[in-house]
Write a structure and sequence with these properties.
It contains six helices and no strands. It is mainly alpha-helical. It has one domain. Helix 1 crosses helix 3, helix 3 packs antiparallel against helix 4 and helix 4 runs antiparallel to helix 5. The protein is elongated and about 70 Å long.
C-alpha cells in the first residue's frame, strides 16, 4: 500500500502534464496536415493547365469527369485546410480533407504508383482522425464559440 501511495503523485503529475499538452498537440496536427493539403491546392491553382492534364491522364478519379474532379480537389485543398487551421468546424473540415485523402489514394497511389507514398497518406489519415475524434482543442475557434455561446 505504501508503494501505491508513493507512485500516485508522480503518476498524477504525468497525467496532468499530458492533459496540458493535448491542445498544443491538436493545434500542431491541424497546422501540419492543413499545410500539406493547402500546398497541394496552391500548386493545382497556380499550374491549372498541368493540373487538368494530370487529372485527365494520371489520376483515375472514380465516377467523376476529370475536370470536375480537378475543380473539386483544388477547392477542397484550398478551403478546408484554412478552416482546419483556425479550428472552425474542425471535425467537419477534417472529414472533408479525409475524403480528399481517400480519393487521392484510390485514384492515384493505388493504380499508378503501386503504393508509393502511401505511408504519408496513412499519416495524414491518422492525424485527421485525431482531429475528428478530439476536435480542435483549446486553441480553436470551435472552443471559443462554445465557451462564448454555450448555455452553461
Amino acid at each position: 500500500m505504501e508503494l501505491v501511495e508513493k507512485l500516485a503523485a508522480p503518476i498524477q503529475a504525468i497525467g496532468d502534464l499530458l492533459s496540458r499538452l493535448q491542445s498544443p498537440f491538436l493545434l500542431f496536427i491541424r497546422i501540419y496536415v492543413a499545410w500539406v493539403f493547402f500546398s497541394s491546392g496552391l500548386w493545382k491553382f497556380n499550374n491549372w493547365e498541368q493540373n487538368l492534364a494530370v487529372f485527365e491522364y494520371e489520376y483515375q478519379v472514380p465516377l467523376l469527369n476529370y475536370e470536375l474532379a480537378a475543380y473539386l480537389a483544388t477547392f477542397g485543398e484550398l478551403v478546408f485546410p484554412l478552416f482546419l487551421i483556425a479550428g472552425l468546424g474542425t471535425r467537419f473540415s477534417a472529414i472533408a480533407i479525409s475524403f480528399i485523402n481517400i480519393i487521392a489514394v484510390v485514384s492515384y497511389y493505388a493504380t499508378l504508383a503501386k503504393g508509393a507514398g502511401l505511408v504519408w497518406h496513412y499519416l495524414y489519415g491518422t492525424m485527421l482522425l485525431t482531429s475528428i475524434l478530439y476536435g480542435g482543442g483549446f486553441f480553436s475557434v470551435d472552443h471559443w464559440l462554445k465557451s462564448r455561446f454555450s448555455e452553461e
